[in-house]
Amino acid sequence: MSQHQQSSGFRYSVGQRTFQFRNLADLLAKATPARSGDRLAGIAAQNAEERVIAQMALADLPLKHFLTDVVVPYETDEITRLIIDEHDLEAFAPISHLTVGGFRDWLLSDLATPEMLTSIRAGITPEMAAAVSKIMRNQDLILVAKKCHVRSAFRNTIGLPGHLSTRLQPNHPTDDLTGIAASMLDGLLYANGDAVIGINPATDNVAQACRLIKMMAEVIEHYQIPTQSCVLTHVTNTIEAIEQGAPVDLVFQSIGGTQATNDGFGFNLATLTEAQEAALSLRRGTVGNNVMYFETGQGSALSANAHHGVDQQTCEARAYAVARKFNPLLVNTVVGFIGPEYLYDGKEITRAGLEDHFCGKLLGLPMGCDVCYTNHANADQNDMDNLLTLLGVAGCAFIMGIPGSDDIMLNYQTTSFHDALYARRVLGLKPAPEFAAWLERMDIFRTGQGFTLNHQVPEHFQPSLKRLLGGTS
Amino acid sequence: MSKLLPTDSMDDAVIENPWQVLRRFTDARIGLGRAGVSVPTRHLLDFQLAHAKAQDAVHTPLNSSSLIESLQQQPWCNDPVLPLQSQANDRATYLQRPDYGRRLDEASQQRLMELPQPDSPYDLAVVVVDGLSALAIEENTLALLQILIPALQQQRNPWSLAPISVVEQGRVAIGDHVGELLQARCVLVLIGERPGLSSPDSMGLYLTWAPKIGRADSQRNCISNVRRAGLQYADASRKVQYLLNEARSRSLSGVQLKDRTDDNLLEQDRGHHSFLVSRS
C-alpha cells in the first residue's frame, strides 16, 4: 500500500487498484463514518471499501499538513483565519512529528496524560481533531475524552472529573411563567439545574427575553442557588437586554463552523466579542467568569447551504474554534435535534454524540450534549439511554434535564431529570460541588450513602407551593 | 432548622411527588414521582404510548384515495381532486432526501401539464401534502377546508381556485412545483407537521405568493399547530384569509408580510414574577 499526495489531490494504492481523493475536504468526507447528511450533500464515500481506504490515506497524512492546506478558503472565511492565525506552534511541538494515525496511537498511549493533553490543546486545529476522530472507534473516543479535563466556572464549577451537571430546561409553549416555574421546581427538587437554568423562549424578542431573565434571576436570588440562568435568544437580543439593564448571566448563541453558516445565523466573531464584553461588564459570576453558552450540531452548515463541500463532522469541529475563542461556560452539541436527513438513526446519533464530545474536549471545551431525538428519526429512549451512559463514562460535562424527557415547546425528546439521576447513580457522578452543597442545605438531596432525594417537599419550597395552591400543598 | 427527612415508610416502591398537582398549570411531565430515581411504570408506559403514536404518524401512509373521495363529495369542490406523488418513492428515502420530497415525479408533472388551461390564471392552488404526519392530514384537512374554501369563494373579491391536489411523500416546497405547473398566483400547502409527543396530529399551513421552484422559506408565511386540541379551524381559516388577502394586495408573501391578527394579545402579562418567589 502506498499513499501519494499531489497537487491534484490524494492517491492511495492497494494492490493493483488506485483510489483518488480530490482534495483534503474530499479525503475527510470519504473517511467519515457513514451518516445521512454527508450522503445528502453528495460527498460521502461511495461504498464501505472506499471509506476505509480514505481512512487509511488519512491516517498517513502528517498533522503538519493541516497547517498549510485548509478546507475552507482563508481569504473568505474568518473561522479559517481564526484557526490558522491563532494556532500555537509551541503547544503543537510535542505532536508535530505525528501522522493522523500516529496521533490516534499517541492519544491512546500513556504519553497522553491529562496534563499533556491540556498543554497541547492550542496546538490542535479542529481539522486535526476531526481527522483523528474519523479513524477512532467509539471506545477510543470515550477513553481519550475522559482524559481531557476541562473546567469552567460562573457561580459553580463545571467539568470536574467525576461530576455530571445538567441544564434545567423548563420550556413552555407560551412562555407561561407559572408553567415555567412548575418545571423549574420539579427540576430543582430532582437535583437538576447546576449547569444552567436555560429557557428556549417561544416568543423570541428582547422584551420576552428580559421578562424571562428577570424571572429566573429572582428565583436564583431568592433561594440562593449556586447556578446561572440563560434565555436562549439571539446574541443581539441579549446584548440589547444587557443595555436595558436585564440581569444577564450567560450569553447564548447557536454557532456553526463556517462564516457563511454564521452569516445565516445573523452574527460574526465581532458580535460575539461585543456580547462577551457586555456580559463580563455585569460581573455577575462569583467563582468564575465564563459567560458564554454555545450550541452546535452536525448538519447546521449543510442546512444553511454553507458547507463548502466539507463533511458535517469537520464543520462541527470548526465550530469549536469559534467557541474556544470566547472561553465558554458551556458548549452543547444538540446531537439528534436536526433530524434524520443528517443523522438517520440511533446508531448515527450515538456516533456523532461521541465524536462531538471528543473533539470538543480535545480542543479544550466544556462539552455537554443534548442527548436527543425527534419523532421522525429512527431512534427511541433506549438509544438515548445508551448514549447517555456512554457520555457519562466519557466524562461529559453536562446533559439536559427536562420533565419526563418531553419538551412540550420544541417537540422533541431529551434526557429527563430522572435520567440524570440514573447516570449519577450508576456511574457515581456528582453535581457541581457548590450546587451539591446547596442541595444538601435545602434538604433536597443527601449525598451520604449513594444519592437520596427527600421524600417530601423541602421546607424552603413549601411556602411557594402553599401560596399557589391556596394552602393545599 | 428542622430537617424534613423521610418520615413515611420505605415500603412503597413508588414515591409520589406532592407537587404533581402543579400539572394543572402545564402539560410538561412534572411530578412523575420515582421508583428509586427512575420513572414509575405507569408514567413510563404513558410516554411509550405517546412516542408510539408519534412514530406511527410518521410511518403510516396517507390514505389518499379515501381523502380524495371525501373532498370530491363536498359541494364547494368543483373539479376532480388530483392525486400526485413526489420523487421520494418510499418513507426511508423521503426521510433522508428532503430534496426528492420537494419535486413531483414525472407522471405527476405530466398530469398537471395536460390539464386544460383556465381563461385567466388561478388565484390560488390548495395543495394537501402528507408531510411527516398523514394522521394530521386525515384528521384536519376536511374540517379546515369546509370553512376556508366557501369563505374564499364567497368573498366580495372571490378567489378563483385551481383543482385541489393531494401529494404523497411531499415536503412544503413541493407546493412551489405544483403551483408553478398550475400557473397559480399563490399556493396554500396543508402539510402534516413533525409529530410532537403530545401532538401527533398537528397540521401546518404554508402560503407562498408566486410559487415557483427555488422559493426560499423566508418567502413563505406559516400557520402552525392546526388540530382539534390546538389552533381551531375557524381561527386558522381567519388567519389564512387575512394573509391571503394581504398577499394578494401586496403581491408578496414571507417575512415582509406579518400576521397581525393576534396583535391585541401581545400586550398581555408583562410581569416577570413567578409563584416561586414571595413578594409579600
Describe this structure in words.
The complex is a heterodimer of chains A (473) and B (280). Chain A has 473 residues and is α/β, with parallel strands linked by helices. Chain A has two domains: 2-147, lyase (Annexin V, domain 1, Orthogonal Bundle), CATH 1.10.220; 152-453, Aldolase class I (TIM Barrel). Helices cover 44% and strands 13% of the residues of chain A. Chain A is built from 21 helices and 17 strands. Chain A has helices spanning 24-31, 36-40, 48-59, 78-85, 89-92, 100-108, 114-120, 126-134, 138-147, 177-189, 206-222, 235-243, 259-265, 269-281, 300-303, 312-325, 346-362, 381-394, 417-427, 433-441, 462-469; strands at residues 2-6, 9-14, 17-21, 152-153, 157-158, 165-168, 196-199, 229-231, 251-254, 292-296, 330-334, 367-370, 398-401, 406-407, 412-413, 445-446, 452-453. In chain A, the strands form five sheets. Chain A has an eight-stranded parallel beta sheet with strand order 8-7-6-13-12-11-10-9. In chain A, strands 1-2-3 form a three-stranded antiparallel beta sheet. A two-stranded antiparallel sheet of chain A has the order 4-5. In chain A, helix 11 (206-222) links the parallel strand 7 and strand 8. In chain A, helix 8 (126-134) runs antiparallel to helix 16, helix 12 (235-243) packs parallel to helix 14 and helix 16 (312-325) packs parallel to helix 17. The N and C termini of chain A lie far apart (73 Å). Chain B is α/β, with parallel strands linked by helices. Chain B has a domain at 64-258: 3-Layer(aba) Sandwich (Rossmann fold). Chain B contains eight helices and eight strands. Chain B has a six-stranded mixed beta sheet, sandwiched between helices. In chain B, strands 1-2 form a two-stranded antiparallel sheet. In chain B, strand 4 (125-129), helix 6 (134-154) and strand 5 form a beta-alpha-beta unit. Chain B is globular, with a radius of gyration of 23 Å. The two termini of chain B are 22 Å apart.
